[in-house]
Amino acid sequence: MDYRLVQAQPGRVVMQRTRTLQFVLGGVLLLLGLPALALGAFLALADPLLGAKSAGFGLTFTGAGLLVLTRRNGPGAFVFDDAEAALLVFASTTATGQPEGRLPYSEIEGFRVRRQVSRSSEGRSVHHALEVAKRDGVAWTLYTSQSERKTRKLLERLQANCNPARSTGSSPAPAESGTFQITREPGRTLIEFRKPYRLVTQITAMMTVGGISLAVLGFQDQMPSALFYGVLAFTVLVLAGVLIGLVNGLNKRGLITLTPERFRSDERGGIIKSWFEEPLENLHAVCFTYHPSQGQQSVMLLNRQQHDTLTREVPDDPMSALSVAMGMIGVRRIEVGELGLAQKLELEQLIQSEVERVSGKRLL
């Protein structure tokens, strides 16, 4: 999933979500999976093991295809609006109606193109990303391409029509969406919210893992017993983990408690519960990153050292990447489930304002 420029005029730039690649990939997986699943059911009548192989691979591809097709990882559109002095976030790709979130221009440092390197077993791939650099040091990625020229051309069009630094408008305070229940008391704030949960994601994940388990059963006569049972046990454990995740996500809620001295985050509901506390004096920033092809289900609380690690320029060699990963291990994260970008932005802004209200401390 990515964003494409659909409107660029002085003072207003609209970037719309495009899911073409997502639909193509999901469609290909379904075309591979559904016939194999049907063939497996037919073959099982004559050869159960052969049928299990075919049906297992078919179920895996079908589940993966549905997982890709139902995945939604970002807003429908981003609108840079000089009149509103804000980056507006819309749920709809048509960018009509009221925005569900806004990032004031005062919180935007500027736009940039950054080289992003990813590694896999197949080697290294390089992409050039168009990013919105926020003043808290983190960035939102809106567009990626292997072509640096194409990405820089998009950057030039964006800068020519919209520039937060020269905007003279003023952005109104964002309205509360109703996602968060806020209780304000002298010296304390309680923020409670339901963690959205997409059942279809868990079901399609179960289909994928279940298909792998079924395919493994089909190779029973071609694998050493120890290896077969080891692989089968592993896939069953993974399937059990997905099932636990399915049940655990039901009716999950988060509760944040702010006092002049401490920040506390609790989880309510579900099977697995977690909590943490952090002295407010240790907090330096509350933020989250955004990339259209990645799912981020948390908002980070950073101390100064962690913030510096996250925001500094890092060479693209493996050891530097490992150093950054090690430096971020202890980061406190508020798990927010399937909250959208606009709601995560609202939570970020809410925590910033309430920390200042109860303690007088200003976070980035």
Overview features:
8 helices; 16 strands; 5-stranded antiparallel beta sheet; PH-domain like; 39% helix
Describe the structure.
By secondary structure, this protein is of the alpha+beta class. It folds into two domains: 2-72 and 198-248, no CATH class; 176-197 and 249-364, PH-domain like (Roll). It contains eight helices and 16 strands. The chain has a five-stranded antiparallel sheet. Helix 2 runs antiparallel to helix 4 (199-218) and helix 4 (199-218) runs antiparallel to helix 5.
Structural class: alpha+beta
- The CATH class of the largest domain, by name, is Mainly Beta
Rg over C-alpha atoms, rounded to the nearest angstrom:
23 Å
- Give the oligomer, counting copies of the same chain as homo and different chains as hetero: single chain
Number of helices: 8
Q: Which blocks of ≥5 consecutive residues have pLDDT under 50?
A: none
Gap from first CA to last CA:
29 Å
- Topology as a string of helices (H) and strands (E): EEHHEEEEEEHEEHHEEEEEHHEH
What is the topological layout?
Elements: E1 2-9, E2 12-18, H1 20-43, H2 48-69, E3 77-81, E4 86-90, E5 101-104, E6 108-120, E7 123-134, E8 139-145, H3 148-161, E9 180-185, E10 188-194, H4 199-218, H5 225-248, E11 253-258, E12 262-268, E13 275-279, E14 285-287, E15 298-302, H6 304-311, H7 318-327, E16 332-335, H8 341-359
Antiparallel strand pairs: 1-2, 2-3, 3-4, 4-5, 6-7, 7-8, 9-10, 10-11, 11-12, 12-13, 14-15, 15-16
